Amino acid sequence: MHFTASDGVFLAFAAITVGSAVVVTLARSLIYSAFALLFTFFGVAGLYLLLGADFIAASQLLIYVGGILVLLLFGVMLTHKLYDLDLKSEVTQFAPAAIVAAGLFVVLAVLGFRTTWKIGPGRAPSATTDEIGHLFMGQYLLPFEAASVLLLVALIGAAMIVRRKKEA
Amino acid sequence: MIGLPHYLLVSAALFCLGVLGVLTRRNAVNVLMGIELILNSANLNLVAFSRYGSGNLQGQMFAIFVIVIAAAEAAVALAIVLTLYRLRRTPNLDQADILRG
Q1: Tell me, what's the ipTM?
Q2: Which of A92, A135, A138, B37 could cysteine-pair with B18, CB 3.0–4.6 Å?
């Protein structure tokens, strides 16, 4: 068993990811949860880089950290009175939910280690952006267009939902 | 030696923490954070299988589409949460029982 440098990097990123995800789930304060989510996203982006997925790591940082997390923070701010400093989030039915989640984790972990996965030749880490661009414009053109239309519809719909109705 | 099962383990931990968050939180924004954790764990699985599988980029392409759907989902869900807050003055999901007969 050789312990290489990349194994150490993996352990560090995995620790960041899982540790901050625990904070996201268990923190009493909404703001703590939101900022712990930032570190979870960073940790997952690091794991993507270790897996040789450079384009997805960059998208993760741009879209999750730059977009979704900011959106969630706006959600926190807009659904509380601004003077309300303790943005508490109450917890209900913790014991049964914890049992379900722990059981699920044991099942998934055993499944992941016991199954003999069909490991292929794999893909050595290399730049993926060029190939992904060609796939988008070739084999995945229709899903690409459908996803863009979906995104447009979803954003217009979101704007319509939150718009204040004019008093008649 | 770090291999596919270790990535699957991290992803399983993320998924279960997300499920725990969705099940236990009363605040709608916090439930959304749990859903983001679940989507991230799915993505991690896809990218890991893309790395250790047959060597093509299919898993990564799927991960990109998951990210797009996650962005659309977050926008629409927050719009609904804001409308709910405007209607009931609360972000708590168990008080959103207007449709109860």
Answers
A1: 0.91
A2: B37
Reply yes or no on domain A1-114 having CATH 1.20.120.1200.
Answer: yes
Residue A85's pLDDT is what? Answer: 57
Average pLDDT estimate for A112-122: 83
pLDDT single digits (tens) A47-61? 999 998 999 999 999
Nearest CA in chain B to A102: B16
Secondary structure of chain B in HEC code, one letter for each residue = CCCHHHHHHHHHHHHHHHHHHHHHECEHHHHHHHHHHHHHHHHHHHHHHHHHCCCCCHHHHHHHHHHHHHHHHHHHHHHHHHHHHHHHCCCEHHHCCCCCC
A154 min Cα distance to partner chain B (Å): 6
Q: Give the global pTM.
A: 0.90
Report domain extents, chain B: 4-94
What's the token pair of residue A158? 């979101």
Of the candidates B5, B36, B73, the beta carbon closest to that of A113 is on B5
Assigned token pair, B92 = 């708590």
Tell me which fold the domain B4-94 belongs to: Helix Hairpins (1.10.287)
What does the domain layout of chain A look like in residue ranges? Answer: 1-114, 128-168
Cβ <8 Å between B60 and A162:
no
The rounded distance, in Å, linking the Cα atoms of A96 and B53 is: 36
Mean pLDDT of B26-42: 92
CA distance A37 to B31: 12
